[in-house]
User: Fold these one by one.
Assistant:
Number 1:
Amino acid sequence: MTPQQVELVQSSFQKVVPIAGTAADLFYDRLFEIAPQTRALFPQDMTEQKKKLMAMLGTAVINLHKLDTILPAVKELGQRHKGYGVTADQYAPVGAALLWTLEKGLGPDFTPETKAAWTEAYTALAGVMSNA
């Protein structure tokens, strides 16, 4: 990722933080709509899962400028997901749900450049996770 892309992801995520609860709701609602088979991978009560999602995103976004630092944790997360039954083909709908959520949450601030930056970030991190 370029420094400009990292900045776009980080600055746009700061606008998501105040609506984190809503963003998590939007994300999982969309994920289960476009990939209903993923619902079985999650607990019935999604409260803690939603908090974990936003915390994980926050950590990844804050550290995008130093990917080497977080790659071991990203790999470990990928291994845990594999243990939960997540398959490589399930990363695509997760990415689609994330981009959709950002578009809804950021509105006009979700510019084509911001979308491209988020796509690059997600693709890089999801690639590490799915290969773990």
Number 2:
Amino acid sequence: MKLHGAEIEDTFAEAFPMWGARVLITAATPAWALEAARSMTGFATSVIGCKCEAGIERELAPDETPDGRPGVSALLFAMDKEGVGKRLVERVGQCVLTSPTAACFNGIEAEDTVDVGGQLRFFGDGYQASKVLDGQRYWRVPVMEGEFLVQERFGIVEGVAGGNIIMLGRDTETALRAAEAAAGAMRSVDGAITPFPGGIARSGSKVGSRYGALPASTNDALCPTLRGQVEHTDVPPDVEAVFEIVIDGLALEPVAEAMRVGLLAAAEAGASHVTAGNYGGNLGPHHIHLRELMP
């Protein structure tokens, strides 16, 4: 299949279930809200090594936030409900409670919830106070600057992780330009994030390794420098660089939409080939076929 001169492989991305939450962070200024969100979503590129995957969904205007201040929406995903709860307590406690003027609210109304503010209140050492508004409990935790306001419980939903597109280019500059265009387009999709740095991973992985302690290792079939050393390569002779974008979402639809806009943007920006990663259908139940995303 061809799109704007790019060869689109007739394959699919294989995605799998993961539990997710939306965190609304507000602050006195947009800059401080963004600072807190960046800190909270740091070191969260992959559950393989980070225990969760997280990223900034979008910035919020004051009329979109619970307290009428500038804000940022962030998404966090883990493999199970307990994992989401633990990671939220850790990251909100270490990165949002500590950030100047920040407050933190739940961003999803869901049947399943985890206790966040109810755990973080203990930092107040007995001086914390709570209030119930519209059936929701909020905690005011005293800090040196004033008070940290945090909602007690956060909704969680069963989302989708592992959506992806892989872009190949005839040189690094072209491949990176295509990946940057794809990542930029994906940021317009609500309900989805791209957790790697700038949304882009240069180190796609395969399951397993010749070293038994490692659960994953470099995807040698897509490493241009190994083209002549491996039994099988997926890198054409005229390709010098490959980048991958991984997408997590609160549902299948935003993941597929992010892949769609990213595919189009990468092709328009000069990718020579676009493909996707899967494990023959054995990893996850969600198969997002590139041909179904074509305009």
Number 3:
Amino acid sequence: MIVLYSTLIILVCLLVLVNAYHAWFLVDARRRGKLPPKGRATMFDVRHLLMEGEKELAIQVYGEIFQTTPIKAKKDVEELERSLKV
């Protein structure tokens, strides 16, 4: 039983760390000027991020614009990326 509780505590701590890193990553990107202020993003920003090779940030911005799930945002951004390469 102790092993189960220990494993659960470790998993929760890892989840908290991953979420904290994700939040820091976005705040740092906004501070460096890679991301527009929250609520002011456009599809131009998504395209610009893709052209710079910042696919992960482009997915975040796309999800923010259209209020979609990360999975759908990733699928749509990958489709946009394919259309940009043509």
